[in-house]
């Protein structure tokens, strides 16, 4: 068997073998193994009150500096708590709802760090009109942390920074320039490390879709490699799945002889796992019952088995809130609730989390074997000065963010007390159609305190076992829903979804409507056989609590199972959200 076949088999095993996850705690303390301290900031953005009116450069800069002043304060707070990387949200510096013309004063031309080494803080005169870049660069340098922010970018057309781009295949916009929604990454010395142009725009008429897909990563000395994507990107194959499945440094495995390959098999397979640490600036509007910010963030972290550092805006009138630090085994997050008379405020989250970059971990392990020192992943004393921490995680980074909950339920667990679902259960009678997230879901109602249900929509069948514990004699209505088809509202993409939801009222027509509160606690096993391997599990409790499932299992035939028992709050939604990317 050739080395290429061996490696291909290894990759297939990684993607197709059964996967199980255990319930996570709400934060990591004393994380075993190499770790680092991450921070995200949910920013109460200061908006331009008239975004459709063009501003001069000086007026636009004055506006942006008001938001950057807040960034400076939060970067300082994060550094005091030991943060080595901080993520700020999409649109946090400039705002939103611009026209193509009115955003002109906010634009800066961001050089491509793949072709130019530049430190805006120490080399401010190299490029004109880069005051925002200089401010962010000096912020990262001053507080000795990696910094990720989002800003508008202006590039000449044709793109001189993409030498392999054929201009004839990508005609210029009529005004002769590209305008991009852009993430920038700065190293702790202030140098520009990465630039990513958002691929999937969400009604952003001021920006262009990049003429060439960008799959952007950057390396750090304290945790290895990270990938970058933005907001609406999270629902699409490009660039998100390309990052998750990105193979890097595998060529070295093909240069080994057979014995060397077998000895290095674990390392080679790890190198084929793709990027497992993701940066996610967003300006996400919460959409119940399936796509609230913290819900989709946790779902992608669990479903893709990655760390996700997610920073959202706080803007109550547009239902924007929900940020978090999510790993497959732990999380800390924040969802704000607006109360009349109370000010809208930002929120800083800080958490120590494990390093997931297998390449970096293997390198550190090899260095340790060779007797080298440094770079062991602790927040105090990473490789060189760039990775050094400035303190410990303070109370503000722990207490203010919500964490996953889920105490042990009384009595025996669901899996022990109910029989295993039959391989091919028959659909339950009395199904009905109701709209959820603008899609026609097939639903069946839950009746009684326990039972088994099946509902199908086309090729997808969803199965549920449940045991319900109503609180205070409530009569809340629950339904099991299935949808397999194309979502066409606010975007076009193919879905296969199994969802257990609390209906908003007592009528079947209320099933699928958004609701934030619930009293009924359910132990359940939710299962579906999907035609895609991209299935993202989520569990949302009353008051926007993101709970951690007891168990998630994926089998090679496409069956995905999620179990949970002992909820601490009422159940709002339990969902297996499948994306069929090849049918988009």
UniProtKB/TrEMBL annotation:
Enzyme Commission code(s) on record: 3.5.1.12
Residue ranges the record marks as coiled coil: none
Source organism superkingdom: Eukaryota
Region (Disordered): 366-429
Record's keyword terms, sorted: Glycoprotein, Hydrolase, Signal
All residue ranges annotated as the CN hydrolase domain in the record: 49-355
Keyword Signal appears in the UniProt entry: yes
Signal peptide boundaries: 1-24
Catalytic reaction(s) noted: biocytin + H2O = biotin + L-lysine
Low complexity bias (residue ranges): 412-421
One Gene Ontology molecular-function label: biotinidase activity
Gene3D superfamilies registered for this protein in UniProt: Carbon-nitrogen hydrolase
Family as reported in the entry's similarity comment: Belongs to the carbon-nitrogen hydrolase superfamily. BTD/VNN family.
PANTHER family xref list: BIOTINIDASE, BIOTINIDASE-RELATED
Function: Catalytic release of biotin from biocytin, the product of biotin-dependent carboxylases degradation.
Protein name in the entry: Biotinidase
């Amino acid at each position: 068997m050739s080395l290429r076949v061996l490696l291909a088999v290894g990759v297939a095993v990684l993607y197709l073998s059964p996967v199980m996850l255990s319930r996570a705690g709400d934060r990591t303390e004393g994380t075993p193994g190499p770790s680092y301290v991450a921070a995200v900031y949910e920013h109460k953005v200061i908006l331009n009150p008239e975004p459709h009116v063009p501003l001069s450069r000086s007026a636009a800069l004055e506006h942006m500096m008001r938001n950057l002043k807040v960034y400076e304060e939060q970067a300082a707070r994060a550094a005091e708590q030991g943060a080595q990387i901080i993520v700020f949200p999409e649109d946090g510096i400039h705002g939103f709802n611009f026209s193509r013309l009115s955003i002109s004063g906010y634009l800066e031309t961001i050089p491509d760090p793949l072709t130019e080494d530049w430190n805006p803080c120490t080399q401010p005169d190299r490029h004109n009109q880069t005051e925002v870049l200089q401010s962010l660069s000096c912020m990262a340098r001053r507080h000795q942390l990696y910094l990720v922010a989002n800003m508008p970018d202006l590039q000449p057309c044709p793109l001189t920074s993409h030498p392999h781009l054929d201009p004839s295949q990508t005609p210029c916009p009529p005004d002769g320039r590209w305008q991009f929604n852009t993430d920038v990454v700065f190293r702790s010395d202030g140098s520009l490390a990465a630039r990513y142009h958002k691929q999937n725009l969400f009604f952003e008429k001021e920006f262009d879709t990049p003429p060439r897909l960008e799959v952007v990563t950057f390396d750090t000395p304290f945790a290895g490699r990270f990938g970058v994507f933005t907001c609406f990107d999270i629902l699409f194959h490009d660039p998100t799945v390309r990052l998750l499945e990105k193979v890097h440094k595998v060529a070295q495995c093909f240069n080994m002889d057979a014995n060397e390959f077998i000895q290095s098999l674990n390392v080679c397979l790890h190198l084929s796992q793709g990027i497992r640490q993701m940066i996610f600036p967003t300006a996400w509007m919460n959409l119940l019952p399936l796509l609230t910010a913290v819900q989709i963030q946790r779902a992608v972290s669990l479903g893709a088995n990655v760390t996700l550092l997610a920073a959202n805006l706080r803007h109550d009138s547009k239902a924007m809130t929900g940020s978090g630090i999510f790993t497959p085994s732990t999380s800390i997050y924040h969802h704000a609730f607006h109360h009349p008379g109370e000010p809208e405020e930002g929120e800083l989250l800080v958490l120590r989390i494990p390093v997931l970059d297998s390449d970096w971990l293997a390198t550190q392990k090899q260095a340790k074997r060779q007797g080298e020192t440094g770079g062991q992943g602790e927040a105090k004393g990473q490789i060189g000065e760039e990775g050094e921490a400035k303190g410990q995680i303070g109370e503000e980074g722990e207490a203010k963010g919500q964490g996953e909950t889920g105490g042990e339920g009384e009595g025996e667990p669901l899996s022990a007390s109910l029989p295993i679902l039959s391989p091919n259960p028959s659909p339950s009678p009395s199904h009905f159609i109701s709209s959820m997230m603008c899609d026609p879901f097939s639903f069946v109602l839950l009746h009684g305190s326990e039972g088994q249900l099946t509902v199908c929509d086309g090729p997808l069948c969803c199965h549920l076992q449940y045991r319900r514990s109503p609180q205070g004699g409530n009569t809340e209505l629950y339904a099991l829903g299935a949808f397999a088809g194309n979502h066409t509202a606010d975007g076009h993409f193919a879905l296969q979804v199994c969802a257990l939801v609390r209906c908003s009222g007592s009528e079947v027509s209320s099933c699928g409507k958004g609701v934030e509160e619930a009293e009924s606690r359910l132990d359940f096993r939710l299962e579906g056989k999907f035609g895609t391997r991209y299935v993202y599990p989520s569990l949302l409790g009353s008051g926007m609590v993101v709970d951690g499932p007891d168990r998630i299992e994926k089998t090679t035939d496409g069956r995905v199972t999620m179990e949970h028992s002992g909820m601490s709050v009422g159940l709002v939604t339990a969902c297996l959200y499948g994306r069929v990317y090849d049918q988009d």
